[in-house]
Amino acid sequence: MKPHHATSLALLASLTIAATSFATPSTQIWSPSTDIQPYSVWHLTSDTYVRTNKSGAITNNVYDAGLTVGVLPFEKIQLETGFDYMETGTSSPADRSPLYFNAKLGTPENSLGGGSPALAIGGYNFGTKTGLTNQNIAYALAAKTLPTLGRFSVGYYRGSRRVLVDESGRPANDGVILTWDRAMTEISDKLWLAVDYASGKSANGALNLGFAWSFAKNVSVIFAYDIYNNKNTGGKDTFTTQVDINFGGPRRKE
Length: 254
What we know:
With about 250 residues, the protein is mainly β. Helix content is about 0%, strand content about 50%.
């Protein structure tokens, strides 16, 4: 149901830690996936992360509008690139540099031979403010769909030692990515479930659980709950809604 349409965003962290945000490539709920937008398909997203508790050091909600497009006309090798405009609506310094960029190159399952996993490399959180929003995270992923069980993904990410830090200012700039997702066709071909996890003590570390419902072939909405590994950098849990709309694509020959 959501193989190319799930998208997400991470938090803008507190002023005293480091501002954090996801320039969103095609994702599960939170973490990047091996999915890539098809050639000339534009993906528009509107994401909201709302705090479940307003106590603590980090209480900001986060709002994101993003656009991603597939740029290679090939089946076995694909590339997408995009940007996001994200802010908290507060006086955060990061709100004065709200643009973030991303790109991803990959190949789908079985493209390298029967049974081969999907592979992807990419980068996200390329912000425009040095030392504040330029997380510059690079990652590599592999994913495999198993009959009945769904798709499992594993990967690794690494970003800026200066920006991705824990509450003491120590580098917390790398970690593993683990995800599971499945279209629940036994119930409805419009329903999709996912769980994803990113390790680490920066604001990027989180466990996310949610589902999506497809209201049309090109329109879906994710509803999810986000649990941050480190409450001092990620803050209190959030509830997210992510509206995803696809449009464009190759023109049919008359």
